[in-house]
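Hi R.,

Here's the chain you asked about this morning:
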Amino acid sequence: MFQKYKPTWMIEAIYDITPEQLRMHGIEAVLTDLDNTLIAWNNPDGTPELLAWIETMKEAAIPVIVVSNNKASRIDRAVKHLGLDYVSRAMKPFQKGFNEVENRYKLPKEKLLMVGDQLMTDIKGANNAGIQNVLVKPIVETDAWNTKFNRTVEKFIKSYLLKKHPDMKWRKSLND
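And here is the predicted structure, written out as tokens:
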């Protein structure tokens, strides 16, 4: 019933994903949601942990691309100092943003990984596009006004999925 919302993995934080884990799974690029996945929605500067993770990915030649439903000016303001590429107005859960990344980077879906904090947009969108994905815990417990409705519906869907799939557990790595 809700298979399109089932994540490939559930990892506590994006920072727990390493280049070694990605290589073991044949992944060459990380797509990430912006708000509450990469940065707190209300703190665009990020954390030292984020800066170290991005640097590790850059050193490993693994592109990190923000795929967000936000407008370009909002994303640019948040990621310009991080040196990340992005797709704005991605229209998740539709495939538009994912297709744009695939075409821009000339990478097949099998080589991409989407990381996000929402089942309704990030995970369903990645599944719709045929891309492996990771659900992470939101960085902060609060949300922007436009996300609150999704969180309510998401609780119901997550409860259903956890009953149907007892293997859905929070992990610290793609290899756990």
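One quick note: Helices lie at 19-24, 48-59, 72-79, 96-105, 119-129, 148-164.

Cheers,
M.
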